[in-house]
Amino acid sequence: MTCPLCEATPHEILWLDDFCRVVLLNDADYPAYCRVELLDHVKEMSDLLPQDRARMMKVVFAVETALRASLNPDKINLASLGNKTPHIHWHVIPRYEGDKHFPNSHWGEVMRENTPPMLDAKTKQTLADKMSTLIECALKSE
Q: Which run of H or of E encompasses 50?
């Protein structure tokens, strides 16, 4: 069985190094939905060395910070499940009180119909730039 996260991503890459990548999923209901994906095929966070766990979380928190600074969401959801894809990855999802599922999980019951506009090229670039700056700053402290 092949792992989709071990393959080249079909998603827009916002940031990448030799350890992980940050992709923009371009979800119609959640246009700024990002995923932080470990490049090596590892199933659980506890399978990583402590310094690699810390590195992954530095990237996740920098993505969260960039989304908050750029888009001012009402809430950020972080999730790492891996039930369908047992490969370390973190979902980083900006949430708004008027979004389709709020206050439920974005996988939960639909509360209202709402289709937000997709991110324009300038917003994507601003987000990617902010993310790169924050990630690089966080990783310098290693």
A: helix 50-71
Domain containing 54 equals 12-140
Cα–Cα distance, 28 to 105 (Å, whole number): 16
Which tokens go with 6? 């071990």
CB 66 within 8 A of CB 127: yes
Positive or negative, the Cα torsion across 135, 137, 141, 142?
positive
Domain containing residue 89: CATH number:
3.30.428.10
- The domain total for the chain is 1
Give domain status of residue 91, yes or no.
yes
**Measured on CA atoms in the order 77, 83, 84, 89, is the torsion positive or negative?**
positive
Beta bridge partners of 35: 23, 91
Is 6 within a domain? Answer: no
Asked if residue 86 belongs to a domain, the reply is yes
pLDDT tens by residue, 5-16 = 999 999 999 999
Task: Give this prediction's pTM.
Answer: 0.94
